[in-house]
Amino acid sequence: MSQPLHVVLGASGAAGREVVKALKERNEEVRAASRSKEFEDIETVPADLRYLAQAEESVSGADYVYLCAGLPYDTKVWEKEWPLIMNNVITACEKTEARLIFLDNIYMYGPPPLRLPFSEEHPQKPSSRKGKVRKKIADALMLAHRTGRVRAVIGRSADFYGPGVEKSILYISFLERMLKNKNPQFIGKDPKLSRTFAYTPDIGRALRTLALDEDTYGKVWHLPVSEPVTMVNAAAEFNRVLGTDRKVKTIPRKMFSAAGAFSSDLREVKEMLYQYDHPYIMSTAQFHARFPDFQAVTFREGAREMAHSFMEEKAITAK
């Protein structure tokens, strides 16, 4: 009997590459689908999931398909392209009879402030357009499961951090600035509010775990997170590794709003500021009840590995 084939869509992204690593650790047969990167030791295929033919080609013969793809952080792009991508991937998986494992985020929960710690059962009345998109595509996938088109499972993740993760608030506003001898900046109201983060190697292992358990399908699962930390804690952990003493500076909301008039990136972040104005702690009780032996990395260890990855890349030595 041939070995099951696992296809990772968006394999070159922060989470996708960790799914690839987690599968290789178990010696699974893996195919990487990516628009931008070639993997030397496994089959790699180009895939633009906006096109059904490419989606079908990328998952041909697959037994398990992990949808870890990302899009530019642009609301109009999300509204146009995410429903198209989800429909194409569902159709492709239906054709090849592959199980579909979707890496989701937590934007659909609302209204803010959320009930803490928020679980998979939290009301879904998103206050943002991006959150409405995420709810729409997750609902479409669960409908496809209920109607028998595909066997699907959703893993929802908190904000990423980890080795080489550049699209993270902990890199863009914190670590990157600290490596340049600048103070970290926080876009919320209070850097002493607690929140949970998801370590990307944990996400890779968790998605593999969900995929290989038949009883997880048809459900939504919150993926493992760190213990709750404040942004002051986060800066302290990076300071510990770098041998520095940088303090968190809060960006005044008026200044943020003014800068948004000139920066599309800041305008896109503005509707998501509610995540930083209140504690934002995700419950993973359901996942750990099902998989009690799964150990998530502590924030201290994760921050250290993240910092070392960028220090190595930039040839910086800790003081």
Automatic annotation (TrEMBL):
Q: Which domain of life is it from?
A: Bacteria
* Protein's name in the database: NAD-dependent epimerase/dehydratase domain-containing protein
Which GO CC terms are listed, alphabetically? cytoplasm
Cited InterPro entries: Epimerase_deHydtase, NAD(P)-bd_dom_sf, NAD(P)-dependent_oxidoreduct
| GO terms, molecular function | aldehyde dehydrogenase (NAD+) activity
Give all residue intervals belonging to the NAD-dependent epimerase/dehydratase domain: 7-212
Which SUPFAM superfamilies does the annotation name?
A: NAD(P)-binding Rossmann-fold domains (SSF51735)
